[in-house]
Amino acid sequence: FAGVVYNYDQEGVHRDARGWEQCISIPLLQPDMGELLQHWDSLLEEFSLEEAWFPHRYEEQQHNCYTFALAFINRVRQGRGGAALSKAEFTERFVLARSREAARYLRLQQQLEHSDVLIVPLAEQEQES
């Protein structure tokens, strides 16, 4: 994927095009949310400029990057008539599932690296089929 990662720390909101290659992507939009996808970037930019995300508001345990992400997601959910998610609920429903999937993949990769298996990338025409 190409894009910009918004993140929040003691220096405020950052927009990074690089440096997040090792992160886990959590898809939040369903296929029927095409119109929201078109406005996502402008909603996120507008949200990131709010006073709540000024650098002096940052607090490592209670008002951090996770808070930023969850608050934005809840803003979007509530704008569409959905209920807000708690940190625990969001973690359970979205983050843990992807983390478990990534952990399984990493274990498999480690096992393959220490075995007599050769991993060969598919040719371009095979990938497109």
UniProtKB/TrEMBL annotation:
Q: Which residues form the MKRN2 opposite strand protein-like C-terminal domain?
A: 2-112
In terms of InterPro entries, this protein maps to: MKRN2OS-like, MKRN2OS-like_C
**UniProt xrefs under Pfam families:** DUF4796_C (PF16044)
Q: Which PANTHER family match?
A: MKRN2 OPPOSITE STRAND PROTEIN
Q: What is this protein called?
A: MKROS protein
The organism of origin for this protein: Emberiza fucata
